[in-house]
Amino acid sequence: MSGVTGRHADRAPFVLPPYPYDRLEDARRSAAALPGGAVDLSVGTPCDDPSPAVLDALRSGAGPYPPSIGTPAFRSAASRWMEHRLGVVVDPTDVAACVGTKEFVAGLPHWLRLRAPDRDTVLYPAVSYPSYAMGAELAGCRAVPVAVDDEWRIDLSSIRPDDAARALCLWVNTPGNPAGGLDDLVAAAEWGRTRDVLVCSDECYVEFTWEGPPAADGGAPGRTILESGSDGVLALHSLSKRSNLAGVRIGFYAGDHGTVRFLSEVRKHAGLMVPGPAQAAGAAALADQDHVLAQRATYRSRLERLAAILESCGLTAPLPEGGFYLWVPAPGGDAWGLVDALAATLGVVASPGEFYGPPGAAHVRLAVVQPDASLDLVAERAAGVDLA
Q1: From edge to edge, which strands make up the β-sheet containing 198-202?
Q2: I need a surface site. Which of 145, 253, 270, 359 has the fewest CB within 10 A?
Q3: For strand 95-98 and strand 251-255, is the pairing parallel, antiparallel, or unpaired?
Q4: Tens digits of per-residue pLDDT, 62-74?
């Protein structure tokens, strides 16, 4: 084709920004040069093994095409898990599978805009997972950050009325990535209902909530947007973090009946379906809480240990209210300088806070996911190191 014609001819082509974690190659090379190699804490990729029962389920035969919305067994398992762990009753008909939750986050604005073409705005926390904003960009929407307070919780009062009037959805994330804050989800749900804005709650770290009274079996205290009902809200859950199934790509969304039905039908037309063995593994994982409680203890121990190592090097490393990240203030606000120093001295690859929004630019995020042997190596390297 010699050129672009028609009603979109005056539009500039969309140019993708660099993928954030690709910008860490220098830090990776620096860390890899140390004896023992790099300890990569830049991405929240679980490194522990799934439970044997889950792996057994994953070995089941592929069979015919699985339902795009999710098998009855998987959706029922998700419904039972939400009742047991989160204290909410959600009918399996209001639950649907997704191919890992990142694709759902990135694709949701595109699907929602089909239903509400007069709205063009995605609201999301100003310090948060980059895919909320990128999903808006990929759908041709306005990505509008919402301020967070001093404890990294979303500040609903800062949302302008004109942005709310144009909003397809508001994203909240509790426990939050990267800073581990806990939002008031009841308030978020009420904000959306009074303004007819869908509130989407990314709850993939809910099993690793540290603050608040634990549930009867010692796990998460049950923070979910669905506590105040399902009208006008969606809860998004992942098996990647909870059950070390990041490579299997399975999650689910639940909540508002009409929205779940609309999205599941659109996604069926788009050919989005979780493979049958992955759904079987997901159902098995949701039925087993013992492996999650063991993983909770492991992550809590690693968080405390790495925080102590960093503090021995002169840094401040507060423990999060939830999640498995340390959100570390950089000395002098120089996050890239701290990323370079961590790589050169401790062999640790970390992410600068600007990846998660401009208000986070003076912090560094460390995903405490590597095995204990890697933390042993970091502890050895930390002797006598001053990063303040």
Answers
A1: 95-98, 251-255, 233-238, 198-202, 167-173, 121-125, 142-146
A2: 270
A3: antiparallel
A4: 789 999 999 999 9
In angstroms, the CA 298 to CA 282 distance is: 21
CA 32 and chain centroid, separation: 27
Tens-place pLDDT, residues 332-364 = 999 999 999 999 999 999 999 999 999 999 999
Q: What average pLDDT score do residues 304-331 get?
A: 98
- Domains in the chain, ordered, with CATH? 20-49+291-382 (3.90.1150.10), 52-286 (3.40.640.10)
CB atoms within 10 A of CB 89: 10
pLDDT of the residue at 217: 55
Task: Look at residue 11 in the predicted model and tell me its pLDDT.
Answer: 67
Q: Give the chain's mean pLDDT.
A: 94
Q: What is the mean pLDDT of residues 166-176?
A: 97
* Residue whose entry in the numeric block shows the structure tokens 């759902």: 104
Residues in the chain: 388
The strand order across the sheet containing 363-367 reads 325-329, 363-367, 351-352
What does the DSSP assignment read for 291-345? Answer: HHHHHHHHHHHHHHHHHHHHHHTT---PPPSBSSEEEEEPGGG-HHHHHHHHHHH
E strands of the chain, at which residues? Answer: 39-40, 95-98, 121-125, 142-146, 167-173, 198-202, 233-238, 251-255, 325-329, 348-349, 351-352, 363-367
Whether residue 12 is predicted with pLDDT greater than 90 in this model: the reply is no
| Residues 79, 291 contacting (CB under 8 angstroms) | no
Contact 150, 181 (CB under 8 A): no
Burial class (CB in 10 A: 0-12, 13-18, 19+), 216: exposed
